């Protein structure tokens, strides 16, 4: 299995632009997570899906952030409009089922908003 | 407030030595703990886990110890190798929300040849 696949690996954009991050979870995994990692705040859970349905989005910073999971093999995290404080590494992770805490992480997207 | 934290932000050891990375948690309701390893440019990778009904669990060259009395978790790496150089995170889940992992800030382990 190729593991969790994220794209792009790096994204540099200007303030105010729309950013879309993409994730393909491990095949057969029913739970998908988006995390954000910064030096100041560490790893923060943004949103969690189970069977393609958003279960908990309480970690999403504000309305500029949105996430979708149209099918079991694809999810997006969108920031519109982006701001410099959104600069971070964004990780997608998947697990076999709800309640299975063993997460498999992708390699992340390094986002820089200038 | 409730949190998971690490005592030492950095740890430097000699190759072949044993390493001990510590983690403190504040919520007695935490019932499941995981250690992750994150190498530069990569996502966190699962190392070992332990549930609150256990005090110790061993894997290959790694041991996790849980002291519920003082809410302390440690990761021991035997015969540390250069490939062990990474940031190590502890993570915990709290009863009733076991999908929601809370991660500590991490400890940077550097192994000197």
How would you describe the overall organization of this protein?
- The complex is a heterodimer of chains A (114) and B (113).
- Chain A is 0% helix and 54% strand.
- With 114 residues, chain A is an all-beta fold.
- In chain A, the strands form 2 sheets. In chain A, strands 2, 4, 5, 6, 9, 10 and 11 form a 7-stranded mixed sheet that branches. In chain A, strands 1-3-8-7 form a 4-stranded antiparallel sheet, with no helix packed on it.
- In chain A, a hairpin with a 3-residue loop joins strand 4 and strand 5.
- The model of chain A has no long low-confidence stretch (mean pLDDT 93).
- With 113 residues, chain B is mostly beta strands.
- In chain B, 0% of the residues lie in helices and 55% in strands.
- Chain B is built from no helices and 11 strands.
- The model of chain B has no long low-confidence stretch (mean pLDDT 88).
- In chain B, the strands form 2 sheets. In chain B, strands 2, 4, 5, 9, 10 and 11 form a 6-stranded mixed sheet that branches. In chain B, strands 1-3-8-7-6 form a 5-stranded antiparallel sheet, with no helix packed on it.
- Chain B starts with a strand and ends with a strand.
- At the A-B interface, strand 5, strand 9 and strand 10 of A face strand 5 of B.
Short description:
The complex is a heterodimer of chains A (114) and B (113). Chain A has 114 residues and is mainly β.
- How many helices of chain B? The count is 0
Judged by helices, strands and strand pairing, the structural class of chain A is: mainly beta
> How large a portion of the residues of chain A is in β-strands, by DSSP E?
over 45%
Outline type of chain B = globular
Percent helix range of chain B: under 10%
Q: Report on the biggest sheet of chain B.
A: 6 strands, mixed
Largest interface, Cβ cutoff 8 Å? A-B, 22 and 19 residues
What's the N-to-C terminus distance of chain A? 36 Å
Structural class of chain B: mainly beta
Note poorly predicted spans of chain A. Answer: none
Summarize the biggest pleated sheet of chain A: 7 strands, mixed
The N- and C-terminal alpha carbons of chain B lie at a distance of 40 Å
Give the helix level of chain A as a range of percent: under 10%
Low-confidence stretches of chain B: none
**Number of E strands of chain B:** 11
Radius of gyration of chain B: 13 Å
Order of helices and strands of chain B: EEEEEEEEEEE
Binned strand content of chain B: over 45%
